[in-house]
Specification:
The protein contains 11 helices and 9 strands. A 7-stranded mixed beta sheet has the order 5-4-3-6-7-9-8, with helices on both faces. The protein is elongated. The termini are far apart. About 35% of the residues are buried.
Length: about 280
């Protein structure tokens, strides 16, 4: 089987399985199987896969046709210009979460010493990206999943920030003793429970449900973070939380307490509010 044959086989297989953008996905699978770049795949259609390459390609093609995301097959995902290890224990980093990272860096950069906390660390992509951009920062990051903590630790070691990142197993703030963070950040589960079954198969069946399910209206964890964050922020500390595309109005109502002020939203490229940003009085 040569590359041209593999592209034809893969495209037909993925189309039959209703995988979006099958040609692009086949290219990714071939690059992964052959350990070659896109230029090689496009410019050498006659290249014949050896026995090992052929077996590997067919194996990953079967996994992708079954709905498994390519990021779990390859084991990596790029985020904010950095490569992160990902496994089924963690949510796959999304581009919209870079809005949260940008806002956090803008808040912390330039400070001589600063400390932040992340609730729901997952792969570690948020905390690690912030730490790499703000050398003066240290962080505490928590997750209820031990598997996620292990992935985050591996990524922190890879990016040489583990000495500045304290990783803890914790149900939101339950294991945190600090009470003077300059910033708390979170990309919590915010998908309404009834909507879970409407998500793409790749998300619904393969990504960790605990990182997706936000309860009946999607805001169970968001409420807990907003209610408890004042106990862990210093005076005038900030809270940044990623939210769903249609949740800005409901989330804004959660900040009506006088202990919060300067509540605003950061929009995505479509002008949709995706991150809420509030300062403690």
């Amino acid at each position: 089987m040569n590359i041209s044959d593999a592209i034809k086989l893969g495209g037909e297989t993925l189309r039959q399985s209703s995988v979006a953008e099958p040609e692009r996905e086949v290219n990714l699978l071939l690059r992964h199987s052959l350990k070659r770049d896109a230029t090689f795949i496009y410019s050498h259609p006659e290249y014949r896969l050896d026995a090992v390459e052929s077996i590997l390609f067919k194996a990953v093609l079967k996994r992708r046709a079954a709905g498994e995301p390519f990021q779990y097959i390859s084991g990596v995902q790029e985020f904010y210009g950095h490569e992160f290890k990902v496994t089924p224990d963690v949510l796959i980093p999304r581009p919209e979460t870079e809005i949260l990272v940008e806002a956090a860096i803008g808040e912390l950069k330039g400070n001589a010493e600063t400390k932040f906390c992340e609730i729901g660390v997952g792969s570690g992509c948020i905390s690690i990206s912030i730490l790499k951009a703000v050398p003066s920062a240290i962080a505490v990051a928590v997750d209820l999943s031990k598997g996620a903590i292990d992935v985050a630790k591996a990524n922190a070691e890879k990016h040489d920030v583990l000495r500045r990142l304290n990783l803890l197993e914790s149900d939101i703030f339950s294991s945190i003793n600090d009470a003077d963070f300059d910033l708390i950040v979170s990309n919590p589960p915010y998908i309404p429970m009834p909507d879970i079954e409407t998500l793409q198969k790749e998300v619904r069946e393969f990504e960790p449900r605990m990182a997706l399910d936000g309860g009946r209206d999607g805001l169970d964890t968001v409420r807990k973070i907003i209610n408890e964050a004042p106990n862990y922020l210093r005076s005038k500390g900030r809270l940044l939380v990623e939210i769903g595309w249609d949740q800005a109005e409901s989330v804004n109502e959660l900040f009506q307490s006088p202990i919060w002020h300067d509540v605003r939203f950061h929009n995505d490229l479509q002008g949709i509010p995706r991150v809420v940003d509030a300062r403690l009085t």
